[in-house]
Amino acid sequence: MILTIKEGKQNKVHLFLDGEYRMTVDRDFLALSGFRNNEVLTEDALAELTAQVHVRRAFNKACDLLARRDHSRAELLVKLRQRGYADGAEEAVERLAELGYLDDARFAAAYAAELQRSKQYGKCRIEQALLQKGVDRAVIRDTLDAMAFETDDLVALIERKYLRQLGDDAGVRRTINALVRYGYTYSEIKEALAAVLEETE
Description:
The chain has 201 residues and is an alpha+beta fold. It is built from ten helices and four strands; from the N terminus they run E-E-E-H-E-H-H-H-H-H-H-H-H-H.
């Protein structure tokens, strides 16, 4: 098979095999790939070129996704597969990790801090959210161990959102159930509620 390379618009080049169009790649990729115009390709060489193209496309898409926000490795893999880049997804993610653009520990710390700050989530809810993002349990444990969960923060949440419900037993139960959904333990809730009720007496 004869590989023919034709210039496209902007940074694109079109690849033809025996005169038949096969794929479009960017000029930078082609320069790094080592394939040349009018080169004779074996089946193995074609398979290698195709694999490299898949990885390049997955890598570029992954970079687009990371430019919008940080991701965990597992989350990025899922998104690449969902968007049609399954063939090169794993290698692309591995390269990004090697280059330092993808780091689960960094992602977990930033995401956990954001959930604590903006959502007022407790430890259990943050753990659940990180698991849903595909973060390893050991990384989650280290992340949560490095965070400060203060009773005063839970007290402030109760006073801001639930203080008016604490006038009767039914309201207290509703408040406790809501705070459990926020990811707080019963002992944490009990301590914070005691502090709130002491302040309001």
